Amino acid sequence: MFVGTKYSAHRDGAEVAAAIRQDIKADQMAGRLPHLLKVSVTLKRFAGGQTLRISIRDAPIQVESSAYARSVVLNLPESLLPERYTPAAVRLRKHLERIALQYQRDASRPEEDYSNVNFFLRVGFAVGFMEVDHEIITDYWLALEGAAA
Fold first, then answer.
1. Are strands 49-58 and 120-125 parallel, antiparallel or unpaired?
2. What is the tens place of the pLDDT at every residue in 63-79?
3. Which domain of life is it from (predicted)?
4. 3, 4, 6: which is closest to 26 by C-alpha?
5. Distances (CA, A) of 29 to 23, 24, 48, 52
């Protein structure tokens, strides 16, 4: 069983989301996260529990690797695609996951297909942010391919 250092059985999901937002702001002020980072922390409740989603909406980093974008331009088979995300993007996502996991309790037993958490966690890049990042990098590679032709 995993219990995060800031977990409280009496804390509502909306309170957890607010606390995570505060922790993210504190890390920005301390310089552990970029000041220009924009995230949304949302909670969705459903009959089986709740999902806390941290969506990275903007960041001063390149998200998609140039090698991945180039492979898409070249229309390589999926089996040959390189790592999609840059190391900076992976580090950012993992940092945000660590913040959220401090509030989580997980008594799941995967070997029995049994899930028991106070919230499910999803950390990712917002669709619009990914589209802009992908378009910039892809345009760069298309321009290079066109210049070489």
1. parallel
2. 888 888 888 778 888 88
3. Bacteria
4. 6
5. 10, 9, 36, 23
